[in-house]
Amino acid sequence: MHMEDGLYAVNFSTANDSGSGVFYVRNNIIRGGDSGMAYFGSYSEDQNGNILGVLRISTHDSSVTSVFGPQAKDFDLIVKGQHNSGNLNLTAIAPDLGNASMKITGRRLLG
Question: Gene3D superfamilies in the record, alphabetically (predicted)?
Fold first, then answer.
């Protein structure tokens, strides 16, 4: 199952906080953001819908605190999980933040 290009609404949560944003996916590239952070990166996918990728998270509004806390300004996320019928179920770790973890869920809105 191939992850379809398009716009995805995403929700994410850590042990301390949660938030939401959008991903725009095209040709295995992800771009997106929320009120305080921009996301960009790439991923690979196998024939079973398993996803592995890296996202760079960059602060664009310093008045907004990351769900990882105020120390998290610019960092990488290693993302893995599943895509199935327009839905995303991912987990992520932030090596730059002591391997803090995050859960990401999403759904495709449009192409």
Answer: T3SS negative regulator GrlR
